[in-house]
Amino acid sequence: xxxxxxxxxxxxxxxxxxxxxxxxxxxxxxxxxxxxxxxxxxxxxxxxxxxxxxxxxxxxxxxxxxxxxxxxxxxxxxxxxxxxxxxxxxxxxxxxxxxxxxxxxxxxxxxxxxxxxxxxxxxxxxxxxxxxxxxxxxxxxxxxxxxxxxxxxxxxxxxxxxxxxxxxxxxxxxxxxxxxxxxxxxxxxxxxxxxxxxxxxxxxxxxxxxxxxxxxxxxxxxxxxxxxxxxxxxxxxxxxxxxxxxxxxxxxxxxxxxxxxxxxxxxxxxxxxxxxxxxxxxxxxxxxx
Length: 289
Hints:
alpha+beta
């Protein structure tokens, strides 16, 4: 019996996470020259699920370094097909459908992000099939519009020796402030297929709480996780639709200024959870907040 509800991989979990950025770029858009992502109609800031998963993968690499089952499949500088080949070599497999199934099981057992997020491993001469991961994240969206700004910077060195300029100009993008809300979902039936354990869930929650602490960069400014609320169902399939649970987290401006001034700090918001609206059979765990 698992005492902490949010660590139980045999139950469905839905969760809300909040994070903010001060004078930084939380997720640049490569199609826009690195400008912070926004919804062009509302100018609310956006951060992709891929960006958050990258930070979680990086934390798992730090926290689970050297521990069996915590290798990372999507790793910078490592070809994905080379990861599949590790399974064939370890299990002494030859090409074929039966080998692909064995390789898929091995990949789930040995790669944390395959087991949790899933992967399409169908490429190359030694494929390992497709895994539908039990844990998925949405894009994160800022509560209010953000104002992306380009800041000119000066570098007091030259790039080339033959350059006669004594300085070079550059730029970086930032938003003054933004509080972002993201949602995640964990499917117990899919977790049973990939072999997720209570230890895996514990590592995931801890990685989320630390994901900005070891991902510092001058371009990202100050980023911090401000809230993590986990709604656990009483069984594997769910007691209520996910949105009826995540909608109980309310985020409202708490400005006392008249007229209101631009929001520039987390303390300018009030965060509440309407626990009275939660259906029977739902357990709320406030990991942060």
